[in-house]
Backbone:
């Protein structure tokens, strides 16, 4: 889960990391709460907001009012602006970059800093990689002085103690909130010390079960601020918990594994068709999951043919067949359903499908070709 | 022998009395896997399918030589379970759970490294050496003994390719599911090296997917150190950027992790690129394994 800036900064504040004073605006009427000059920052779950024009500096109230109206009526990279963080303007001496994250190549936590603050780190690592200082952290050893010193040296930080304290606090947030990234960029050096001007925090969705209150609060806020129009299948998929990715073709697909699902997508393309979506049910699905997945895919009016590719390992084909049969009996077969079925209990599954007139394929490529050609005939 | 497991491998099942654990244990045992012990706290002293059950892993290792353990422990308790197995001196663990918090996986992988052990997974179906040993949940009728090593991020894709190979008369030495990521115990590169060193394996099929940089590292290894032929299939070519494609690790972030960049790196390293599962046996027959 990617936190919005104001959410990330609220966590920093809880842990005592200084951030600029701010007001969160959710409508242009909140203007009266803002004092100028101010930095106006649209709250969006995307990077590169500055370049996209979603961050403005207003010197006075009049200028501010017009910028705020502009921002609230803007849509940036597909996201309508629903909230603006209005912050005091900070007198900055130097902008730095500091992050603590999981390095998936090394399988270790990574402490990273750069003097190139304010710019996206991907850009710094492309243009001036020598500016970035990295130290892997042994998870059982934790943060030590000798790990922080090389960073402080490269950043020319004069107050080592407060820098070390900042790093330690970021690491505490990382562990206590189950983050995969805690990034402060830019971190401003000011006459009053270090101030986090922007922050990005990614939380691990897989740890949501042990961060329930936190996730609940953050998700509720984000839902309220996300006014993107969701399609019917997207809404349904959210409720069922299956993986659903909308695409722009007309062959609807469902798979019982991520790898075969992606292969199916590639094969649809290879045989000249266009997929309407990607859908994976997950390892422990049952008849009910199957039936609901069909509901999701067929709620997309563009779908002309449905391709169900099943290769049971953990999933049982008799149960999958039951799900398909349940759907057909309930809704009738309004469009062609092509099924590929093999693996655990496939014989029983295929026999049950026959009863509703579906002849399941053994081979995936044959099933994909059939689905693509049936879609073209319609 | 095949890689990682063979006929003589003695196995411990962690979570042996659970619903999935007991169901899969019975199938593995029938396949011929030497399951010598099971662990479920509170069930010590009982038996299941004739296998003795212990409360603690440390009790089981006193009574039996354990070469490998298979964990059916659910995600939220998986770290604790894995640490117990490794702390008891078991050299190889298959961690099947999906959805283990990343910081937990990181600690397990690190502890395993410190102890000089190996962990496969998480989010893996395990591995199978057809005809010899099955330490996994594969639909094993799709596999047969032979000279081709298979490694895959996806379980389902390894079944698909195993089935196509078997149907074309090509058997497999070992089929290894390394897991859905984004953090892996054994990496593609590590498993490739095992296949390179295994005399029974004549060629290797690498099944990769979008997301991350692991295939680039594998490509580097193939270019430098593999003398055996490597056939690759990278799925997710049609995956849109920024969408998670069913696996935690299968997501194209920015320009990183696209299928094109992986295919280009692997092709440059001398790997043979298949466009579909059906092309894999065709390529293998052409090079004559």
Residues:
């Amino acid at each position: 889960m990617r936190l919005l800036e104001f959410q990330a900064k609220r966590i920093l504040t809880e842990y005592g990391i200084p951030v600029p004073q701010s007001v969160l605006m959710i409508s242009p009427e909140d203007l009266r709460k803002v004092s100028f000059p101010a930095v106006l920052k649209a709250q969006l779950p995307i990077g590169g907001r500055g370049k996209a024009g979603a961050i403005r500096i207003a010197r006075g109230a009049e200028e501010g009012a017009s910028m705020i109206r502009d921002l609230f009526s803007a849509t940036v990279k597909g996201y309508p602006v629903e909230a603006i963080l209005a912050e005091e303007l900070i007198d900055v001496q130097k902008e730095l970059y500091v992050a603590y994250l999981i390095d998936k190549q090394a399988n270790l936590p990574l402490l990273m800093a750069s003097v190139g603050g304010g710019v996206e780190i991907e850009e710094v690592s492309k243009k001036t990689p020598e500016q970035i200082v990295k130290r892997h952290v042994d998870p059982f050893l934790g943060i030590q002085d000798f790990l922080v010193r090389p960073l402080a040296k490269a950043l020319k930080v004069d107050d080592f103690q407060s820098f070390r304290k900042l790093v330690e606090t970021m690491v505490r947030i990382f562990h206590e909130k189950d983050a995969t990234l805690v990034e402060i960029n830019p971190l401003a050096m000011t006459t009053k010390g270090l101030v986090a001007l922007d922050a990005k925090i990614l939380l691990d969705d897989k740890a949501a079960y042990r961060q329930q209150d936190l996730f609940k609060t953050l998700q509720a806020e984000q839902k309220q601020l996300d006014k993107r129009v969701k399609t019917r299948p997207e809404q349904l998929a959210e409720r069922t918990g299956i993986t659903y990715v909308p695409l722009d073709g007309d062959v609807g697909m469902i798979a019982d594994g991520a790898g075969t699902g992606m292969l199916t997508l590639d094969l649809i393309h290879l045989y000249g068709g266009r997929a309407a979506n990607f859908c994976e049910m997950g390892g422990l699905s049952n008849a009910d999951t199957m039936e609901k997945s069909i509901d999701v895919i067929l709620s997309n009016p563009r779908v002309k043919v449905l391709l169900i590719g099943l290769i049971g390992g953990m999933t049982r084909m008799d149960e999958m067949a039951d799900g398909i049969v349940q759907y057909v009996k309930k809704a009738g077969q309004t469009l062609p359903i092509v099924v590929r079925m093999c693996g655990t209990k496939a014989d029983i599954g295929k026999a049950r499908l026959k009863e509703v007139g579906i002849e399941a394929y053994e081979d995936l490529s044959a099933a994909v070709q059939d689905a693509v050609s049936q879609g073209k005939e319609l | 022998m095949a890689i990682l497991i063979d006929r003589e491998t003695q196995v411990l099942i962690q979570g042996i009395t659970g619903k999935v654990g007991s169901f899969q244990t019975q199938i593995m045992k029938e396949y011929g896997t030497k399951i010598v012990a099971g662990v479920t706290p509170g069930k010590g002293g009982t038996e299941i399918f004739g296998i003795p059950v212990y409360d603690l892993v440390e009790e089981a290792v006193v009574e039996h030589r354990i070469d490998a353990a298979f964990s059916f422990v659910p995600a939220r308790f998986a770290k604790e379970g894995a640490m117990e197995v490794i702390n008891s001196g078991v050299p190889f663990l298959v961690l099947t759970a999906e959805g283990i918090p990343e910081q937990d996986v990181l600690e397990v992988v690190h502890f395993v490294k410190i102890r000089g052990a190996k962990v496969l997974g998480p989010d893996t179906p395990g591995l199978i050496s057809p005809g010899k040993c099955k330490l996994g949940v594969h639909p094993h009728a799709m596999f047969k003994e032979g000279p081709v090593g298979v490694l895959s991020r996806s379980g389902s894709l390894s079944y698909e390719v195993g089935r196509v190979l078997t149907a074309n008369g090509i058997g497999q030495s070992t089929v290894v599911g390394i897991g859905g990521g984004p953090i892996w115990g054994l990496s593609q590169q590590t498993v490739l090296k095992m296949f390179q060193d295994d005399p029974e394996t004549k060629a290797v099929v690498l099944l990769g997917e979008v997301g991350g940089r692991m295939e680039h590292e594998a490509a580097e290894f193939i270019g430098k150190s593999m003398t055996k032929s490597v056939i690759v299939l990278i799925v997710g070519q049609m995956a849109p950027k920024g969408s998670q494609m069913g696996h935690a690790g299968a997501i194209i972030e920015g320009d990183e992790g696209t299928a094109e960049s992986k295919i280009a790196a692997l092709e440059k390293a001398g790997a043979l690129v298949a466009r579909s599962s059906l092309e894999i046996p065709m390529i293998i027959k052409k090079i004559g394994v």
